[in-house]
Amino acid sequence: MELKEKLIASFMAFENLVDIDLPVHDVRSEAIKQFESQGFPSKRDEAWKYTSLNSILKHDYSVFPKRENHIDYNEIKKYFIHDIDTYKIVFIDGKYSSHLSETTHDGIDVCLMSSALTKPKYRLIIENYFNKVATKDSLSSLNTAFSQEGAYIHIPKNKLVAKPIQIVHFSTGNEAALLMQPRNLIVVDENSHVQIIERHQSLTDNPVLTNSVTEIFANKRAIVDYYKIQNDNENASLIDSTFVNQKQESFASVHTFSFGGKLTRNNLNFYQNGERIDSTMKGITIIGNKQHVDHNTLVHHIEPNCESHQDYKGIYGDSSTGVFNGKVLVDKEAQKTNAFQANNNILLSDKASINTKPQLEIFADDVKCSHGCTIGQLDETAMFYMRSRGIPEKEAKALLMFAFSNNVMSSVKIPEIKQRITKIIANKLGVHIGFDL
Amino acid sequence: MTKYTEDDLREELKTKEYEYGFYTDMESDTFPIGLDEDVVRAISLKKEEPQWMTDWRLEAFRAWKDMLEPEWANVNYVKPDFQAISYYSAPNTKPKYDSLDEVDPELLETFKKLGISLDEQKALAGVAMDVVIDSVSVATTFKKTLNEKGIIFCSISEAIKEHPELVKKYIGTVVPQKDNFYAALNSAVFSDGSFCYIPKGVRCPMELSTYFRINQANTGQFERTLVIADEGSYVSYLEGCTAPSRDENQLHAAVVELIAMDDAEIKYSTVQNWFPGNAEGKGGVYNFVTKRGLCEKNAKISWTQVETGSAITWKYPSCILKGDNSVGEFYSIAVTNNHQQADTGTKMIHLGKNTKSTIISKGISAGRSQNSYRGLVQVSSRADNARNFSQCDSLLMGNDCGAHTFPYIEVKNKSAIIEHEATTSKIGEDQIFYCNQRGIDTEKAIALIVNGFSKEVLNKLPMEFAVEAQKLLEISLEGSVG
């Protein structure tokens, strides 16, 4: 059976598991119809021109994990940012693991989507925010149809969340092939501040596909700082769709670090519904083998006096392929917009390829919009300079790559993440770097 | 000092009527409307073409029937009804003239209004003109000089008759019949166009030039141009167009093929000023053009275009850099005003080693127009040391227009160096203030800034054409160019 048919059939089984009298179930039923009519995207769709899902859709994924699995914390400690105190929302094969998690209801809500969807005390938030910013494209609709579990974070007015929140998904490989569809909702009210770290990790070589949707609402003057660490093993694929809705004077940033995974697709959409908003989206991609990473970004400038900054760096080795498809849309009313987009790529191998399409669509005249895009190699004169001073080739290359990605690293606000990313990059390049960036 | 603000300019732009909108009243030999295989055969027969050409057209027509009109471009328009167009029209005068005196005086008047009086051109510029009114070549000048060098410069229908071996060998090699919807249509029904062949090692002593002009109501114009520069030769080719004011949309689907063999260089410059429609966006020409050049070893093709006209422009002059060390260049200014929509850009396909390409695109949008740059830079895995530099700048005037950039970059070779940058801005108040402060009034200041903005491209136009380009820019942005 084709995956599409299987999923549509599974929806009926899914209806037996959830409370279908809730209003949210209407949203789900609507979404499955949407998915049924659209199907999976193909290369014929402009947005998927350079990314084919064929290779990851052929597996016979199980949609519902059969039982809860237990993992010992010591085995997976390394996948957490463990050197600082954090809230944790941990899922194993799509099921919540209370044993590994550390949630809270003390002034702020850091808990589960499944309880938020069913408990009356969250009803207002769910009604106002759930599925309000996610688009109706086929994969997001598929996620909406099966939306049940994920992280639910609500920060009320004037709260500074003392420690970062980690959202971690593990897959144990107990299923031959597993499809997970986490659904996250993050609402940050006026003047509040939150930092979130998200990670997906597969613990075996069994194929895993994650189709994740995250909705983020940054209300007035809220600050949301989001980090995505993608360093999964090479049988795991991730389709991540993140939608950020910003109100006036809010500040939202999303940093995406893509090092692992077989196929990674990041859909990142920012909607600026207010004045004087700042949006930042940055990413570092370092991949090799046959890996594929696709960054698809959109910043929609709707109101005046807003800014957006995009900076994506990619280093592609072996037979890897990279895609960057960035779009800046400036509405007629969005005067005095300042939008900047940069995409720099380095190809290390003749089999690697990069397809990039930085787009600007501008309808307002008093704006400053620019984009830059480069594809090149490591600077040979810089290499020569270092090697003539006794730095071995490998280390010299690594230094240049660190320097290349430093623009992105410099805006990371949690030092432990910086250290972790530096370590991951050093491991990837097989060098030891004796300093912190 | 009279205060001249951007608002005044905008007002002027809005009200500025198409100056060159006039209609020459001449009897024409026009086909009834509609398109089927018989019409294709009839066109071929009319042009006294050999059988292979008729077959070639029919093959294209059969392919076209099954093709769909492309919809990916960032333009909105009422699709032309291809069965409501007459596919052939020729001025009803004697086919050839020996001197200007024999030419229909009304026709000469038309040229005068356009500012291209033939005798003046002959005397002054040293430009050989292959003047096309509607679809048949009417006059060819300076043929003798060219003949001495062995250069063939004639209409394509003449070339089909007199140099069939060249046409047969090269036509459709760069833009195949089935390349795209409009190219297929053109291949089936092209009425005329220019043909140019520069023999080995010859440097063409003058700028070759053609004027296209749509003249007959409801007649699509399907030009076909083929330029072949043999090994080590050089040619600079100019193309310019103006069209009379008309209320119905006119379709223009041209195909231009350039072939630059080893060490050859072709410089192809266009000034396009088809009727853009009136201030309400009514009428205007649909310009769906396929232009492509093929570069062999060490060859160079340079496209320069100044696009000021057309209601809809759909045009991507491209270079296939097949040979090692070949060079492709694209310099463009696209000005849109009122309801004009332009989706234009280029494709640089790097296949050979050490190939280089440069793209400079300047878009100026005013009124309610939409101006898009759409480009592709592709580096194949064998194209070692490919180099590309692209720059797309947009200038917005007023708040009802849009500027869009859609660059596609596909690289499969690690030694490639690709740079792309784009900016969008308006004329800065600080810039105007700076000029005002130094005694330059606002009108001049705007002129200065727009001029400066497009200078990089204007500089690339051949001397003989620069005046014409200035004139055409004036029509679109009068008041801003001093």
Summarize the structure.
Chain A: Belongs to the iron-sulfur cluster assembly SufBD family. With 437 residues, chain A is of the alpha/beta class.
Q: What is the gyration radius of chain A calculated from CA atoms? A: 21 Å
The neighbouring-strand order within the major sheet of chain B is 4-3-7-9-12-14-17-20-22-24
Radius of gyration of chain B: 22 Å
Which class do the helix and strand fractions of chain B yield? alpha/beta
Q: Provide mean pLDDT of chain A, rounded.
A: 89
Shape of chain B: globular
Indicate how many domains the architecture of chain B comprises. Answer: 1
For the terminal residues of chain A, how far apart are their CA atoms? 50 Å
Strand order, main sheet of chain A: write it out. 2-1-5-8-10-12-14-16-18-20
> Assembly type of the shown chains?
heterodimer
- What is the β-strand count of chain A? 20
Shape of chain A: globular
Report the end-to-end length of chain B measured between terminal Cα atoms. 16 Å
Domains of chain A (count)? 1
The interface involving the most residues is between: A-B, 36 and 34 residues
Strand content of chain A: 35-45%
Average pLDDT of chain B, rounded to a whole number, is 77
For the largest beta-sheet of chain B, the strand count, sense and barrel status come to: 10 strands, mixed
Poorly predicted tracts of residues of chain A: none
Beta strand % of chain B: 25-35%
Helix fraction bin of chain B: 25-40%
